[in-house]
Amino acid sequence: MSVQSVDRALDVLEALAEHGGAASLSQIAARTGLPYGTIHRLLRALLDRGYVRQESDRRYALGSTLVRLGGAAERLVGTWARPYLEKLVALSGETANLAVMEGNFVVYIAQAASSRRLRMFAEVGRRVLPHSTAVGKVLLAARPDAAEVLARTGLPRRTPHTVVSAPEMLAELDLVRARGYAADLGEEEPGVHCLAVPVRDGDRVVAAMSVSGPAGRIDALDRAELALGMLAVADDFGAEVGPALRPGRPAPVP
Amino acid sequence: MSVQSVDRALDVLEALAEHGGAASLSQIAARTGLPYGTIHRLLRALLDRGYVRQESDRRYALGSTLVRLGGAAERLVGTWARPYLEKLVALSGETANLAVMEGNFVVYIAQAASSRRLRMFAEVGRRVLPHSTAVGKVLLAARPDAAEVLARTGLPRRTPHTVVSAPEMLAELDLVRARGYAADLGEEEPGVHCLAVPVRDGDRVVAAMSVSGPAGRIDALDRAELALGMLAVADDFGAEVGPALRPGRPAPVP
DNA sequence: AAGAGCTTTCCACGATACGGAAAAGTCCTT
DNA sequence: AAGGACTTTTCCGTATCGTGGAAAGCTCTT
């Protein structure tokens, strides 16, 4: 139920992105499994529009049109979210993020950085699996099909603390639902702890907001109290812009 | 020599961007001239991949995948350009930008900010008409079809200093070609002056670099001397990464 | 100089996207 | 509330448009 050539063109773009933004035709072929002729034709189409540029060594790289388009998309999402994320920064002193579910992945779509010297690096645009992050757990906890998602993605170990057993994760999701927030205690990145709460549009969870920082500083905070404050911010945000984040369809199966 | 459905899908994305990132199906139809059924099918394909989101009022908006891709593209272009832009900042003390021509527009694709308190705001991703900016004049001066571009875009007045007559602008472009750099003396934004130089790949101008800041500070500098320094930096940059900026096709006519 | 590897072009086939038109849904207006 | 106008979504037969294998053309090694 989609357009083959568009789908493949997007595959090509994403293959480029995963190669750090630049790759040769054969590298793209290896990654996408598409025939050379096809890739070349798609690249020409993207080239004509500035979505891709060709370097002097014939490799292909993501082009400047994407900078503009991505900027527009980011501004769109960012303008809505910024004031609320800044409230979270004020509340916690740590970097705040907004994330949504995209297929089986979690994508960070906006950020407000803490003003502290030691702080989380910008990760707007980053895609991670849900099982090893606080935002992921919140989003997963809201899905009736959480078990299937985990079955599809697996629970790869990211650090010694990552929860790698599906039943254990499902039990933790019950806990998340019960207390209304999720924690990540160095499960995605060693030494980095996070707290996340759901953003609701009515009774539906459409996104998650989190604060993250060095383990020591996060653990020094009263977790339940901070979560309470975060929930208030997230509820305000959800009431204002929730509908705009609502996904078009339930869950694309890979 | 391109793929119809990919081309149209990109038209749809760009139509969305031009509507401020969100638009209804019929608005997209009005802008692209494509039949409803076709647009709907393309939107579904983009929806499935997260390039577009559907809001609760059924309007379509640019999606979060674009944030990720745009970020990757920006990082890519930025990495190449940063060291050179920073040299310009060191040279002038002002914010430096890299811009390319995209169709009839000028797009800023990278920036290095001045460390001064009063400085230009980030404008990566911004699209402006060429006649009212220093980078625009440099890029226009390099095109044999400058007159046609001006005829297509017009020369809308942005400030009291904007040059709004095409013959006058063409005369100024001659001057730009002759002396090798262009100036914008408050023609795009009141009180903001810029100096721009071409980035060459061989004998071809593929981009422009500029420094911009408050009128007083820019005017205090020796313009010819600064331009000379900037040209040296731009030539180095062009020699290293010029080919990657080379546009794929001449100029899409709107 | 010649080869190996990668990129680009070509072309006949048929799968795929097209798009008009009808159905379904939504939102004003009376 | 109910009708009507508009917008969005679905449908389906047809012709077009994209497909991909294979050959030609480059470029950089051995």
TrEMBL record, chains A, B:
SMART domains in alphabetical order: HTH_ICLR
Domain IclR-ED: 65-243
Superkingdom of the source species: Bacteria
Coiled-coil ranges from the UniProt annotation: none
Domain HTH iclR-type: start-end pairs: 3-64
An example Gene Ontology biological process: negative regulation of DNA-templated transcription
Claim: DNA-binding is one of the keywords in the record: yes
Pfam families: HTH_IclR (PF09339), IclR_C (PF01614)
Family matches, as InterPro entries: ArsR-like_HTH, GAF-like_dom_sf, HTH_MetabolicPath_Reg, Tscrpt_reg_IclR_C, Tscrpt_reg_IclR_N, WH-like_DNA-bd_sf, WH_DNA-bd_sf
GO molecular-function terms, A-Z: DNA binding; DNA-binding transcription factor activity
UniProt keyword list: DNA-binding, Glycerol metabolism, Transcription, Transcription regulation
Function description: May be an activator protein for the gylABX operon.
PANTHER family: HELIX-TURN-HELIX TRANSCRIPTIONAL REGULATOR, ICLR FAMILY, HTH-TYPE TRANSCRIPTIONAL REPRESSOR ALLR
Stated name of the protein: Glycerol operon regulatory protein
Organism in which the protein naturally occurs: Sphaerisporangium rufum
Organism taxonomic ancestry: Bacteria, Bacillati, Actinomycetota, Actinomycetes, Streptosporangiales
